[in-house]
């Protein structure tokens, strides 16, 4: 007879299989996808926190089936592959979009990004180039390879969790590594955010273990995947200063962190051979059509000035700047109360502020601040779990907006998944909910 933890693991695995099967079926499989999501999410919430389950086995069983699915909830992975092929063809990824490449991979990139230059740094470009050097224009092989990169990053996160959260590592592992939002979007979607967060996590672990130079190098590498990780350099400098004797440790730690970051940036950019165009392309995801609180407010305000082009454009820009101001206010408060908040939770809060008030918001962006916040603030686990649960299913498996029929199919799938979960009577150990 299956033990408590094994039942939960099996239910989550069944959910992942259903998600994969439904995604392969396309629109007719939408009910399967959302039934699988419900099973996976409920298994995660009920996941045993008393040790009868094996978390690494659970990771393999929950993530493994997703490797066979088509790209889930986004087609960004085709942009990564197209960029790797563009570099091989000598095209400047920071001046041209995938349309300049042509071919079967570029054709799979959503139309909105066809003429958009890459916003990613040289480490991301190195990975894309390495993957496409092996897989070429074979789309399925390329997607699988990018997923393996994401899964490898997730393994790195799991390995350093005990260093970042020594007092409650099992709970943090469950909240972060086994999180359906992480599995579905970072592994299923093959997003390079997984690599960014993985390098950031290892860098923070090195900083906590008093290896500041290694920490600064790793966090810089994360920044050269996606720019928001640069906030981790502030955390490295603060931790470095706290362990530095003598006068003005903060100044010396800041200069040291900056020097390591600059040196690593120069070396990695030279190795990648893509130049510094990524700095100018950092605003690539920014458009008034993005979904985010500031973008929505900008569009609503612009509608008021529908007959005034200047006023409409200005209102959108003003809301963007309001988002920047709100983020700076959060960062200022975190810095002011840093001794009370703590370095890791402070970093997590600022990263979540960047997500909440930024010009573009995707469900998986929340993962940026998930680990440092969970590691430093055990009391935040339940709220973070609720947030991740809400965000996991908010977009369709193909990444496009839903019509009424698709919404009804998704709701039906969730209800069926919840019913199956109830029928198998998954055991709920005392205080098992992530917290």
UniProtKB/TrEMBL annotation:
Database matches in InterPro entries: MptA/B-like
Mode of membrane association: Multi-pass membrane protein
Subcellular location: Membrane
Main subcellular localisation: membrane
Pfam families noted in UniProt: MptA_B_family
One MF term in the entry's GO annotations: glycosyltransferase activity
Cellular component annotations (GO), alphabetically ordered: membrane
Transmembrane segments: 7-25, 31-47, 56-73, 144-165, 177-207, 213-241, 253-279, 318-336, 343-361, 407-428
Keyword terms, alphabetized: Glycosyltransferase, Membrane, Transferase, Transmembrane, Transmembrane helix
Family label: Belongs to the MptA/B family.
Full protein name: Membrane protein
Organism of this sequence: Actinoplanes auranticolor
